[in-house]
């Protein structure tokens, strides 16, 4: 479904050049959820932006469903860390924003209800908790019914219980919609809970350090299992070894 082939990204030129990714290659199968972890500043967000078609690679290429990404695609949605809500628009208007940009008229009521936002449709972002604002950002992406969902730390800086609730929600929606997902996160437990495979990137410029298989992923009960704890320990060891 997603093929990343020898991908390199360099910002700037000459002495000011900053390499973000270097010869990065990996595949994501259709309907698979992959978590991406690595040191801060190693290029994880840049990777999502290239897959989404918002920036062009310096070299290499990305294919989605066999087609090279050359711009923003209608079947790919991106969730940003800060939700990216427009403060002067209501919950409903924010949720419908991407649909309106694409001139589509799908109803968002079902998505809002699934995310626990029914009854808040006319509220503005300033009237919501941080967790609810994040859910509106998720609603906006899912309203597109994407084949591919890219998530850039959508649970960052939330309290533990809110974070777990949204993780559970994303898992439920993945089972329901069967989108292909890539989740960028700094949280080890989050990566293990939501990633069928976990891609570990090296320090910048990022390369594939290791791909950790995680076959137990897929249920809410996985968090408390010995297998979960063992995978988390393994991932922590890999990250500690690379500093």
Strand content: 15-25%
Q: So, CATH architecture of the largest domain?
A: 3-Layer(aba) Sandwich
Low-confidence stretches: none
Overall spatial form:
globular
Could you describe the largest sheet, including whether it forms a barrel?
A: 6 strands, mixed
Which structural category fits the helices and strands?
alpha/beta
Radius of gyration of CA atoms, rounded to a whole number: 18 Å
Question: What is the helix content?
Answer: 25-40%
For the secondary structure, the number of strands is: 10
By CATH reckoning, the class of the largest domain would read Alpha Beta
Please describe the topology of this protein:
Elements: E1 2-11, E2 18-28, E3 33-37, H1 44-51, E4 59-64, E5 67-68, E6 76-79, H2 91-101, H3 109-114, H4 130-142, E7 148-152, H5 160-177, E8 180-184, H6 188-194, E9 197-201, E10 208-213, H7 226-241
Parallel strand pairs: 3-8, 3-9, 6-7, 7-8
Antiparallel strand pairs: 1-2, 1-4, 4-5, 9-10
Helix pairs in contact: 2-4, 6-7
Question: Your description of this structure?
Answer:
With 243 residues, this protein is α/β, with parallel strands linked by helices. It has 2 domains: 2-75 and 148-241, P-loop containing nucleotide triphosphate hydrolases (Rossmann fold); 83-145, no CATH class. It is built from 7 helices and 10 strands. It has helices at residues 44-51, 91-101, 109-114, 130-142, 160-177, 188-194, 226-241, and strands at 2-11, 18-28, 33-37, 59-64, 67-68, 76-79, 148-152, 180-184, 197-201, 208-213. A 6-stranded mixed β-sheet has the order 6-7-8-3-9-10, sandwiched between helices. It has a 4-stranded antiparallel β-sheet with strand order 2-1-4-5, covered by helices on one side. Strand 7 (148-152), helix 5 and strand 8 (180-184) form a beta-alpha-beta unit.
């Amino acid at each position: 479904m997603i093929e990343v082939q020898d991908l390199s990204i360099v910002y700037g030129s000459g002495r000011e050049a900053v390499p973000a990714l270097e010869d990065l290659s990996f595949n994501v199968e259709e309907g698979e959820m992959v978590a991406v972890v690595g040191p801060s500043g190693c290029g994880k967000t840049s990777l999502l932006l290239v897959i989404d078609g918002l920036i062009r690679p310096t070299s290499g290429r990305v294919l989605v469903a066999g087609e090279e990404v050359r711009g923003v695609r209608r079947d790919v949605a991106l969730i940003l860390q800060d939700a990216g809500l427009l403060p002067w628009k209501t919950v409903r208007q924010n949720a419908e924003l991407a649909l309106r940009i694409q001139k589509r008229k799908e109803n968002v009521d079902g998505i809002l209800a699934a995310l626990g936002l029914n009854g808040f449709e006319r509220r503005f972002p300033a009237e919501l908790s941080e967790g609810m604002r994040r859910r509106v950002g998720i609603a906006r992406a899912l309203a597109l019914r994407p084949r591919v969902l890219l998530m850039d730390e959508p649970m960052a800086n939330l309290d533990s219980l809110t974070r777990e609730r949204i993780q559970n929600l994303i898992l439920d929606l993945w089972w329901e919609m069967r989108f292909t997902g890539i989740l960028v996160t700094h949280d080890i437990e989050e990566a293990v809970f939501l990633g069928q495979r976990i891609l570990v990137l090296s320090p910048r410029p990022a390369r594939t350090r290791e791909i950790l298989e995680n076959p137990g992923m897929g249920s809410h009960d996985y968090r408390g299992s010995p297998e979960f704890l063992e995978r988390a320990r393994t991932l922590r060891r890999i990250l500690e070894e690379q500093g």
